[in-house]
């Protein structure tokens, strides 16, 4: 604090809490400085509690609560949630602030989340820097607000709005809440603390104290509970906490519970959920993602990438171009013909137009974005590019021709990347004079939506090229994962193994519908056979045909092959593993099931029907087994990256953490026993020996 009238009364080095007093000792300013995000840890709670307790007896006019650094308190310290809850608990601190005899004012900036918002709601007044984000994101961690945040919001802004905050977990802009009981003043420019101090000074003693608990009242709003529940469940994607919280809110609303009673019930549910498997997995996912982002950006030896070239304006090329444009980078876009280029530009525009229609973008934004793009049919134009990404179709010879041309026309320092999903990047690198600057950048379709990007290190790729690509991945707001060269790299290789097991289970007499239902009830965003229909069954069929040296793949994939050979390519032909009506609705297909059954007969496969749980387990064991093989071969060097791949590339349920987390939870001994059984039942080629101790 720079106010010359202030005197520092107290400073705790460990928690970074500082108490200053000003205005002749009548205005106390408590400042929290606990980087990176002022998460409210046990120590912080304890310090704040002592401060408020000791200030209560002093002759003050008011207290200002503020934070330094990038944000106000961004929540309870999530790291503490894997241990027993430690006293003092947040509700105790909050109760002390609510009962504090003089007004307490919170000055907010950054991301005021979870316990941070609960703390702010305990105060009598809230000022916020314009665009501050306010949120109760607890449900994203499989828990609910545990210190009365939902109740206080119900009281201050109504039940509907509280449901929106607490059951969807989506942060909202403070500006939208100005002049409500949530936000009393916005700060557009100037120093927040200075303006908060003058706000405090203007408070008269008669108007100043609020009481959200004694005045707890939530009557008078109509809520369509059925449709609200449907929406909340849909957004929750299998996480139980949002619907449980909604039930609580409904009970409070319909039974007219007191604040105290309602808080007790919510606290109980919070503690119960905190220890649930879902919450543990979601915390694992949170910290695994943070670790990934930190690793990807923690290096200084990266090159500068300002201008990017993209070769190819097909579907993948359009998505990739959009990633760079959205990151504000200059783009040079190459296609073979003017016609193909214009088609790509048109598709790019159409993608943005749909955002304009939904009100997520303006025409001016579109113009600004299109200004970044320059199209051409000649490679010479790529000369200024620091990076060129090739997004032509999946053919090794075509890619080699392109890379020869890129090597010739791009500046010496340019990094050359291929977006191949399967092909051998080493042999692509060899056709250039700069194999150390050739790398794989494997985007997932649709490239501008999917958060995963594989950074493929070829035999000779230089370290600084990998580091530059990892940092670029974060800049593109993706999760970049470094992988080595093998067929399908890490992601598609695991996906192929998963698909192969699904096909085997089909051949063993488990129906199309039973398998899809088992996997969606496990939590996968879509059943594996529905996914095949959606992406086109012929795509995998053609890729496997090129891999005829892997005969077991061909045998295993007979159900898919049979679909293709009978013209059932998936949704695009209105028929695949399912039938598709003119309305687009998906229905079961006896014809498809018959094709599968015939294949099983031809291969003399003994039926082996499984329960839904056994189907899920076989599919997961296949993923764990392939993942461990990938680790053993050194294709990926950190097992948690395989979970990132599945969370962000294949719609794996976040509340299950990822396949390797699933395996680790089951435990090495259990996994070993199950893999041995499968090895015995099938073969060691399909279920090879792997180093189980890597599961952690
Ligand atoms: C809660 O509050 C429950 C209550 O109801 C209590 C009831 C009793 N704890 O993301 P970043 C770390 S539940 C501990 O890279 P950004 C993060 O791991 C909580 N650590 O920065 C990273 O560490 P490192 C509700 C946390 O600017 C560093 O901070 N709150 C926490 O891109 C920087 O993070 C939430 O769910 C935390 N709460 O984004 C908020 N938050 O440097 C979760 C962050 O070692 N957090 N860290 O890798 C976020 O959404 C983002 O981190 C935030 C900042 C938007 C705050």
UniProtKB/TrEMBL annotation:
Keywords: Fatty acid metabolism, Isomerase, Lipid degradation, Lipid metabolism, Lyase, Multifunctional enzyme, NAD, Oxidoreductase, Peroxisome
The keyword NAD belongs to this UniProt entry's keyword annotation: yes
Involved pathway(s): Lipid metabolism; fatty acid beta-oxidation
Domain called 3-hydroxyacyl-CoA dehydrogenase NAD binding: residue spans: 307-484
Keyword Lipid metabolism included in the entry's annotation: yes
BP-aspect Gene Ontology terms: fatty acid beta-oxidation
Pfam family, one: 3HCDH_N
InterPro entries reported for this sequence: 3-OHacyl-CoA_DH_NAD-bd, 3HC_DH_C, 6-PGluconate_DH-like_C_sf, ClpP/crotonase-like_dom_sf, Enoyl-CoA_hyd/isom_CS, Enoyl-CoA_hydra/iso, NAD(P)-bd_dom_sf
Localization annotation: Peroxisome
Gene3D superfamilies with a match to the protein in the record: 1.10.1040.50, 2-enoyl-CoA Hydratase, Chain A, domain 1, NAD(P)-binding Rossmann-like Domain
SUPFAM superfamilies with a match to the protein in the record: 6-phosphogluconate dehydrogenase C-terminal domain-like (SSF48179), ClpP/crotonase (SSF52096), NAD(P)-binding Rossmann-fold domains (SSF51735)
GO molecular function: (3S)-3-hydroxyacyl-CoA dehydrogenase (NAD+) activity; enoyl-CoA hydratase activity; isomerase activity; NAD+ binding
CDD domains given in the database record: crotonase-like
Domain 3-hydroxyacyl-CoA dehydrogenase C-terminal: 488-580
Catalytic activity: a (3S)-3-hydroxyacyl-CoA + NAD(+) = a 3-oxoacyl-CoA + NADH + H(+)
Family membership noted in the UniProt record: Belongs to the enoyl-CoA hydratase/isomerase family.
Record protein name field: 3-hydroxyacyl-CoA dehydrogenase NAD-binding
The organism of origin for this protein: Shewanella woodyi (strain ATCC 51908 / MS32)
